[in-house]
Each structure stands twice: as structure tokens, then as C-alpha cells.
């Protein structure tokens, strides 16, 4: 399999962490590409986004939730609870984390523009804060299985540390802070830390 990724993308990190946790990393060749400047990516993913996976059969898969679901199925399961409340907790956490990353990426790009719109930056900042507060209401338990929902949350918090360290998401969120301190030292997380 071939994974088109960028080392700074939180969505691509989620896929790489999932692959490592499932024991599939060795079967995936990584192709680093900058989706913002290299439009050859559209020949793989017409949306021009990372991550995109070319499976062994040649099928192209995107976006990150679909790729993670594919890898989970390929490995015979393990990261997405097959049924019951745990499944929906995992999927909701993934959707929340991906949404925070969407808002953080948009805010970062808007903030770099000379004619930036402060009202849009405030809108995305507000969504990030309210999503973090929602996550703090029911943070993953210490020692719980590191499923896809947790992987997505961990990659989201790692992305905020990397791109938006100030104000620190840890302030006023002891539950998330304790849990993240535990999971950020997992080998899958350490081997995918965004480059500084
Ligand atoms: N929903 C997508 C989001 C992917 C995404 O937005 N990736 C960013 C990099 S962090 C990208 O490739 N952006 C390029 C663009 O929007 O043109 C996923 O979960 O895979």
C-alpha cells in the first residue's frame, strides 16, 4: 500500500498511528507531499488532500476516516468497536477531533493572509474552544483501549501543541491533560510527532 501524507497533517498522523497500532505500518510505503503546492496529488485524490491511500489492489481511498476504517477491516478489527455505545463514542470523538483540526487549519491559513478576516478567525477559535470543552466533559479514561476515537483526539491535541500552543489547550482541562500525558508516549505517537 502507498500512503500520500504530509508530516504535519493531523489527519495523516491519525492514519499513521492507526496503522502502527494495527501492526500494518510495514505494509505501507509513505509518500510525502505538500498538498498546498503539489497539485500532482489530484491524480491520486481529486480533492488534492492528504491523506490518500492506494491499496494493494490499486483502489484509492480517502479521507482519513475511510482510510482508518479500511485499515481496521484489513487487520480484522481492533480500533473501531463493531457495535454498541463504544462504537458511537469512538466515532463521535473522531468527528469532533477532525472538526477541531478543520477549524485550526482554516484559522492558521487565514491568519497568514495580509487581508485576514478577524471575524472568521474568532469563529474558528470559538469552535475549537467549545469542542475542547465538550471533550473535557467526558475525557477518555486512563488505561482504556486506544481506539480510533482516542487516536483522533490525541492527534488533534498534538496538532494544537504544534500549530497553536497559545493559549495552551491544557488550561482548565485537567482530564484531557492527564489522559494525553499517558498516550503521547506510545510508540505510535512518538514515531509520528510533527517535525519542528
Ligand atoms: N477530511 C479530510 C481532511 C484532509 C485535509 O484537509 N488535509 C489537509 C492537510 S492537513 C490538506 O490536504 N489540505 C489541502 C487542501 O485543502 O487543498 C481527512 O480527514 O482526511
Contiguous helical run count: 7
CATH class of the largest domain: Mainly Alpha
Strand order of the largest sheet: 2-1-3-4
Report low-confidence residues grouped into runs of 5 or more.
none
Largest sheet: 4 strands, mixed
Oligomer category: single chain
How do the SSEs run, as a string of H and E?
EHEEEHHHHHH
Find the CATH topology of the largest domain.
Answer: Glutathione S-transferase Yfyf (Class Pi), Chain A, domain 2
Which architecture of the largest domain would the CATH scheme give at its second level? Up-down Bundle
Number of domains: 2
How much strand content do the residues show?
Answer: 5-15%
**Could you tell me the number of beta strands?**
4
Task: Work out the radius of gyration.
Answer: 17 Å
Small-molecule binders:
glutathione
**SSE-based structural type:** alpha+beta
Tell me the distance between the termini. Answer: 27 Å
Described by the principal axes of the CA atoms, the overall outline is globular
Mean pLDDT: 97
What share of residues is helical? 40-55%
Amino acid at each position: 500500500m502507498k500512503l500520500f501524507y504530509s508530516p504535519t497533517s493531523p489527519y495523516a498522523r491519525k492514519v499513521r498511528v492507526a496503522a502502527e497500532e494495527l501492526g500494518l505500518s510495514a505494509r505501507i510505503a509513505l509518500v510525502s507531499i505538500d498538498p498546498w503546492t503539489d497539485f500532482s496529488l489530484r491524480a491520486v485524490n481529486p480533492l488534492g488532500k492528504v491523506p490518500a491511500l492506494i491499496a494493494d489492489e490499486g483502489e484509492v481511498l480517502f479521507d482519513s476516516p475511510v482510510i482508518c476504517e479500511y485499515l481496521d477491516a484489513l487487520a480484522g478489527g481492533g480500533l473501531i468497536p463493531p457495535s454498541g455505545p463504544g462504537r458511537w463514542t469512538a466515532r463521535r470523538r473522531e468527528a469532533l477531533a477532525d472538526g477541531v483540526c478543520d477549524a485550526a487549519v482554516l484559522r492558521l491559513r487565514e491568519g497568514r493572509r495580509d487581508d485576514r478576516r478577524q471575524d472568521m478567525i474568532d469563529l474558528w477559535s470559538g469552535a475549537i474552544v467549545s469542542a475542547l470543552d465538550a471533550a473535557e466533559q467526558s475525557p477518555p479514561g486512563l488505561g482504556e483501549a486506544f481506539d480510533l476515537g482516542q487516536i483522533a483526539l490525541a492527534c488533534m491535541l498534538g496538532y494544537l501543541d504544534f500549530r497553536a500552543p497559545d493559549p495552551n489547550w491544557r488550561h482548565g482541562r485537567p482530564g484531557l491533560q492527564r489522559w494525553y500525558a499517558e498516550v503521547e508516549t506510545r510508540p505510535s505517537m512518538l514515531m509520528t510527532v510533527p517535525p519542528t
